[in-house]
Amino acid sequence: MADFGLYGYQEEVVQRALLGENIIIWLPTGGGKTRAAVYVAKRHLETTPNAKVMVLVNRVHLVDQHYTKEFKPHLGRDYSLVPVTGDSQVKDFFGIVVQESDVVICTAQIFYNALTYEEEAKHVELSDVTLLIIDECHHTNKESVYNKVMGLYVEKKLKGEGPLPQILGLTASPGVGGAKILENAVEYVLQICANLDSAIVSTKNYIPELKEKVPRPVKTFDIVDKRPLDPFGDHLKLIMEQIHEYMNPPPDFRLREFGTQEYEADVVVLEQRGVREGNRVLSQCALHLRQYNDSLLINDTLRMMDAYLSLEEFYDIKFTTAIDTTDFFLKRTFRENRSELKRLAGDSRYENPKMFKLESVLLKQFGPNVQSRGILFCKTRKSTHYLDDWVSTNKALQEAGISASILTGSGNGIGYMTQNEQKDTIRNFRLGAVNLLISTSVAEEGLDIPECNLVVRYGLLTNEIAQQQASGRARVKDSQYSVVAQKGGREVRREITNEYLEELTGQAIGVIQEMSFKEFRTKIALLQKDSILMKKAAEGLKMQKRSEHSPGSTQLLCRNCFKPVASAGDIKLIDNTHYVNINPDFKKHYKVGDRIHFDKTFDDWEPGRMIHCNNGGCNKNWGYEIKYKVVAVLPNLAIKNFALETPNGIITVKKWKGVTFPVEAFSFERYCQDNFD
Quick one: pLDDT at residue 677? Predict the structure, then answer.
């Protein structure tokens, strides 16, 4: 193995996999799990007749990263390798690609789709694969696509159907799933092992080498006192009290403290209740209170002006129309307080002390002649933009040579980055043109990001897995891991709790590794049987819920103005993705807005224009039109923007999978007959 460049601890953790066992490799971020997996794949290809290696990842950008950085350099000379993403043309004949390739690297969703497709060109059987590598395998739980794939595996295993591929999972931490005591933590990790049908392996004999190669950063709690005076925040709370008085919340409903996540959860529930009861005063006031609460949360973490601008954007851009006295009251309330809020936000005497502490932390690591790299983790995409603006306009940080860039998740919505933008940002970070990434959780795991001198967690409440992943980004010797937080705040308590949970994870894994082979396999088998039974029960309940109401008895109401606009019977499903309204009369209920653009192109459809409710001044966003197979222009609806009027009353759902009526598949042939014959 030495010629392959493996360290001793990597050689140790792959031994059981080389013998054909199903295992999970547990190594910290930066420990070289992927390199170890490439070695296992190489040996597997060399020694297994008709070998076929499938590498699954949970994020699109990891397909190219693993292919380019790890698998192709070591296997490309002797074996055929193919990376496949949703953008790849080859995904449409994925089954053929698998047959003709030695190694396929793809997202788990593509592989799962192939397992369920009936078309021969797209279809793949688990038995076609001899080694299945699952990256970041701690995600193999609940409804994740990893667990759907492994659910099919476990079902076949319990039925005695085969052959089945060898499993190789990779993780920096399986976590404990919210467990607080060892017994429950062991149960959680055992469930992950059961889901992956694998034992968990870590280094025992090379711990000093691992610590040397993957040093832990020096952790600091950079604590600030609560600001003594906060007139801007106080004024926001006065406005919220006025809105409370106007909306007159139900006496049986308790709203918790302003400026907290709990209050945000409360007003979300209150808005849903307003919609269900047809009480527009309640629903609209709750929506606006959420915006003010969001402004308070920003004020607690970022600059006062950021908090003000967030609120101003909502009223000037998103809330531009009014349809009744409630809307007029809410617009007038902001307008009357606008100048005072802006004045208070600009008063530097009351600025957020966390920002000064953050500046101090950064200046300790960066300087005009200092070669440093850092990642600043924050909670939301909006926060990354405010912090980027702060860095670029802060004289001291600029003089220290800090060049920042935003890194957020890829997607098609506002605030997301394209995959090319992500690649460019990371490339600039690697080359040194950028030395500070301001990132959401996207940079915590998986991405091939250079070693950092500094990792800062700012305004974050996450679990022990995310904390370990973020900490693992600070891998330069004597690097710093800083938690900037308010004295006695929840961030500090959560960080300390996560430290305990990280230790608990290690203890739980230790207990499992000490089990006899028979005890471990007995426990795994029981958990697998229980999982199959629970899955079938859940599917039954889901089907039962989906048939609770007939499509003809259910109406879609605009969630803003409550006007009935469509029958559920007019909704059809295209390619298991797009929920469209095929009734041509539906067009009279909406108006079109700006054309939307996605980073990638699609085989059978293209996005069109945004659609909005045209009832009076409502203007509620409903989704966007799509052009399907060139000829069909159909409104693609987001169900979260509607309420459902059912025989049992009005309900709201976040996603289409939550609706209480069945949705038929779209028939392009029938659509053409009805509209073009």
Answer: 64
For residue 266, what are the β-bridge partners? none
Rounded to 5 degrees, φ, ψ at 488 are: 75, 10
Kindly report, residue by residue over 621-637, the tens digit of the pLDDT. Answer: 999 999 999 888 999 99
Q: Is the pTM of this model over 0.85?
A: yes
SS3 157: helix
Sheet containing 436-439: order of strands: 218-224, 480-486, 454-458, 374-377, 436-439, 404-407
Residues in contact with 184: Cβ distance below 8 Å, sequence separation at least 6, in sequence order:
176
Closest CA to 583 of 635, 628, 627, 646: 635
Residue 26 contacts residue 201 (beta carbons within 8 Å)? yes
Contact by Cβ (8 Å): 147, 195: yes
Three-state DSSP state, 178 = coil
Q: Please give the structure tokens belonging to residue 200.
A: 């968990």
Which residue type, as a one-letter code, is found at position 294? D
Q: What's the token pair of residue 174?
A: 């399986």
Domain ranges for the chain: 2-212, 215-226+354-498, 231-350, 551-676
pLDDT at 5: 83
Closest by CA position to 128, among listed 173, 174, 164, 90: 164
pLDDT score recorded for residue 488: 85
Q: Options 1.10.10.60, 3.20.20.70, 3.40.50.300, 2.60.40.3080; which CATH number does 215-226+354-498 get?
A: 3.40.50.300
Fold agreement (215-226+354-498, 551-676): no
* CATH entry, 2-212, from 3.40.50.620, 3.40.50.300, 3.40.30.10, 3.40.50.720: 3.40.50.300
Task: Spell out the SS3 assignment of 587-605.
Answer: HHHEEEEEECCCCCCCCCE
**Cβ pair 84, 63 in contact under 8 A:** yes
Report how far residue 507's alpha carbon sits from residue 501's, in angstroms, rounded to the nearest whole number. Answer: 10
Residue 443 — pLDDT band, cuts 50, 70, 90?
A: low
Q: How deeply is 136 buried, as exposed, middle or buried, from its count of CB atoms within 10 A (0-12, 13-18, 19+)?
A: buried
Backbone phi, psi, residue 456, to 5°: -120, 130
> May I ask the CATH class of domain 551-676?
mainly beta
Could you give the angle at the alpha carbon of 209 between the alpha carbons of 207 and 212, nearest 5°?
A: 110
CA–CA gap between residue 547 and residue 561 (Å, rounded): 27
Structure tokens at 402: 């800090």
Which CATH number among 3.20.20.150, 3.40.1190.20, 1.20.1320.30, 3.30.450.20 corresponds to the domain 231-350? 1.20.1320.30
Q: How far is CA 105 from CA 56, 70, 600, in A?
A: 6, 11, 20
Residue 637 pairs in a beta bridge with 623
Identify the residue with better confidence: 449 or 413.
449
